Structures are given as C-alpha cells and as structure tokens.
Amino acid sequence: MSTVARPTRLPTTWDREVDIVVVGYGGSGATAAFSAAEAGAEVLVLEKGETGGGNSACIAGSLLVTSVDDEESLTYLDWMCGGQTDEGVLKAYLDGLKDLADFQSRLGFDLKPDPRPFRADGFFPEYPGAPGSDAFLGVSYIAAPGGAALYESIARLAEGAGAKVEYSTPVVQLIQHPDSGEVLGVVAETPDGSRISVKARQGTILATGGFEFNEEMRRQYLTHCPILFLGSPNLTGDGITLAQQAGAKLWHMSSAAGPLYWGLEVEPGRVYVTYDFMKMASFGHSAPVFKDAGSVIWVDKQGRRFHDETTETGTVHHGYGNREKWFAMDVEVPEFVHVPAYVIFDEKARAAGAVMTTLNSRTPAWSEDNLAELDKGWIIQADTLEELAVKCRIPTIPGASRGGHLDAEQLVATVRQWNDDCARGTDSSQGREIFLTPLDTGPYYAVGPLYPTFVNTHGGPKHDPDQRVLDHADVPIPRLYAVGECGSMWGPYYNSMGDIAEFIISGRNAARHAVQEGPWDAM
C-alpha cells in the first residue's frame, strides 16, 4: 500500500481546464503536445523556463537509430539496459522506430533521397561486441542541422495544431484523487508568483527531462565526485519529484551518458568543454587550436598527464570507457586521483583558436583568440610554468579532493617530457599520435579546475509501454505519463542517438494513449 500523502479534498474551482497537460517543453514535450493536439485534444504545455528546448539544444538532429532485425535488436537493447527494462517497453521502442521516417518527413526539412541503414562501429552500433548488435544501425532521413532546429520544428507543429504554451510557469504539484490516486490535474506557479489549479481531463504528461542540474540528486544517485552536464539548467529533476510524490517507482537512476569531456562551469548552467574527436565528422581534428598549433595537454591535480587528449569518441562509447581512469581513486585517503583536471597550453595555442568549446547551441561560443575568456578570468595566465602551477588552485571538496594547487615541480617535469616526446615523434606517456607540438612558448595558460562532464541522465519514474507511470507494485498511476529523459528506458549503457528516437517515440505513445482516456469529469 502506498504511503504517499494525497490531498484530502479536490479544488472547489479550477482556474484552467484542458484535456491534456504537458509538463515541460523540450523535444519529448513538444512531440507529445503535437501528437495530442493533432488528435483533437485541447493541450496546455507548462514550461518553467523562459523558453523551451530542454536538452534538445545539444543534439545532432538528423541522425537516428534503426533496427534491421527486431528480434536481434531486442537482444541488443536488453543487453544495453542490463536486463533492467521490461521487454514490453523495449518492444514499444522498436515498434516506434518504424514510424520515425514518416514523422520526420513532416518537419519541413529536406529529405534524404535514399536513406539506408548504415554501420559505424562505436556509434551504430555503439557496442559492436554486444549480442544482437549487428541489427542496430544508424539512419538519417532528413538534412536537419543540429542543436535546437529539430525541437523548434516540432514545436511549430505542436502550436500550429493548437497546443497552448505558457512559459515561466513551473508545475509544483500533481492533483490526485484522495482515494484512487488518479491524477486529475496540476498546480502551477505563474510568472507573478500566484498559483493556479489546472484540470487535466484526460491525462498529465511529465516531460521535464532528467536531473542534470540538481546537485543533491547527482551526488546521491550518480557519484559523489563533482561532475557537470551539458544542456538546459532547467533540468533539475522536477518531474521525478512530482512522480515520487504521486507514488511512482523509480528506475535507472544511476544511468547517465558520459563522461565525454572535461568541463568548466563559468556560471550556473553555462558549461564549456574540451574537444571530442571524431574522424568521420572531423570533430576536434579541424579545430584550429589543434590543427594549427597542437600544444595542448591535460593534467590532473597531481600535475601529470593521464589521458590521450585526442582519443576518438567512438572508442570510449559515450564516455563509458573513460570512467575507470577518470574516476580512479586513491583508496588510502580516499579521494579521486585525476579530479579536478586542467587544460595546459602555450601562446601558440592561445593565438591559434578557441581552447574550449560547447555542444549547447544556446551557449555563446568561446572566442577564437581566447582573449575574452582571459579577461573574465576563465583562463589562467603566467609567465612560467612554475607560476602557472601555483595559480591553478584545487578546491577542497569532501571525499573528492583536498585543497591546494598544482605541484610546480611535477608540472614542469610533465611539460618537459611532453616536449621531449614531441621531438621524438612518440608520446611515451599516453600514446597520442596526432598534433605532437611542443608546449614551449610563453606566456603559459591553463583552464580549470575542470570536472568530468556528461551529456544527460536517464533515470526517473518507471513506465510501461504506453509511458504510463508505475507505482511500487508496477501498477499504472491513472492518467499520469512520463516521456523522454524523465524515466528513460536506457539502463547502464547507451547507444548514440537513442535518446532522439526515444523522445519522439515516447511522446507519441503517451499522447496516443492519453487521448483515448475518457474525461474523468464526465464519469
């Protein structure tokens, strides 16, 4: 029996009445809103931010996954999810893949003339050694740019179909029937601070994303190591908390894609990261700071190199391959050996190009000459490496790192070894094979402290194949749905572009089921 406290009485009056309330307006919320509105439902989207988009601002919008053999793909997905995700949910995902071409053909982008499944090991499939992986490939139906373009096209369809959107209006409570637990509507806070009750006659869809910017949840569910995330700072686990208050069971709370980068958070929600390298898309390889200079290395808090800075993204499987090394522990203290890290570079690299980048299309670009960031104090400058080491302060974080600064003698030794290796043409420390340029032209620079940076979380309320949120007995909570990263199907592993497919499939499935529900106030 649930121990969740429910309201003892319902609102005597409702400030708003609609068929479907969608909580959150990222990719999955926009898809759900469009699908429900197109089916004739009166839809209201309540978004806590000043704009929508969520994590959709950080995606490569034209790439998707596809299945060429559903039986084999089911085996692969079950392996990727570690057996944690119900088979029915995985089958619903595979069924939904079949409709993606038709859905994307409506988004207003140029269509690829002959889209065919393709293989690119390390991406499609992400884990080519896993059982069933040969059936799980990549596909591209549209010539869409990345970033927010895909989300914006779906949002236009949703609003064109009649969905109404209210921004700066976070949902703070679900309204449940005191006896049955049926979700009848929501309480939301308006921009002027007042609270309104909104009746949802047919259903409420949680599309609030994950908990990337909720530090307490990150520390409790993921790791006590300081970590960062790309994407929207509005993703603070609101939908997870709302679902918990309604009696939901959670799943996949330790699941996150990454770490792929080392990141610097210059203000809440504004994160810049190191470059990732991907030959097939020329990521990293074409960055001027590398191709025109190359005198860039990473060091850990000991002042030592610990990783090939030009590692191909496809070899680390959305960062999973980085975890053992990046989160290595000194068990005698205990603390993390390599966290925080610093990017070290010289004047050649400073003048060549931006030393950091971002995948969030709504984050201003890092300047090409790095001078704006130097003026803001985001880049540390010194005439000598010894002076630079002292300026690279290490914060005290319980259980993670003891305070201090980089060891000057060790940093000098590290750079000396790097320069000697560059002269020999062989990186004896980390095996880096490209951009072997001596770091020998002052002044010298650093960016840091940097922390392992992930793309997104996957945990949240457990759901069934129709996206209905389940309680602790695996019984659907009536009229409550969760979509996208708010309780994603992905478990311990993840396949590239799987989230894009999921936000479309889950949004459509939730809307399809919700609009078939009879209005509760007509019963």
UniProtKB/TrEMBL annotation:
<keyword id="KW-0560">Oxidoreductase</keyword>
<dbReference type="InterPro" id="IPR003953">
    <property type="entry name" value="FAD-dep_OxRdtase_2_FAD-bd"/>
</dbReference>
<dbReference type="InterPro" id="IPR027477">
    <property type="entry name" value="Succ_DH/fumarate_Rdtase_cat_sf"/>
</dbReference>
<keyword id="KW-0274">FAD</keyword>
<dbReference type="InterPro" id="IPR036188">
    <property type="entry name" value="FAD/NAD-bd_sf"/>
</dbReference>
<keyword id="KW-0285">Flavoprotein</keyword>
<protein>
    <submittedName>
        <fullName>FAD-dependent oxidoreductase</fullName>
    </submittedName>
</protein>
<dbReference type="Pfam" id="PF00890">
    <property type="entry name" value="FAD_binding_2"/>
</dbReference>
<dbReference type="InterPro" id="IPR050315">
    <property type="entry name" value="FAD-oxidoreductase_2"/>
</dbReference>
<feature type="domain" description="FAD-dependent oxidoreductase 2 FAD-binding">
    <location>
        <begin position="19"/>
        <end position="496"/>
    </location>
</feature>
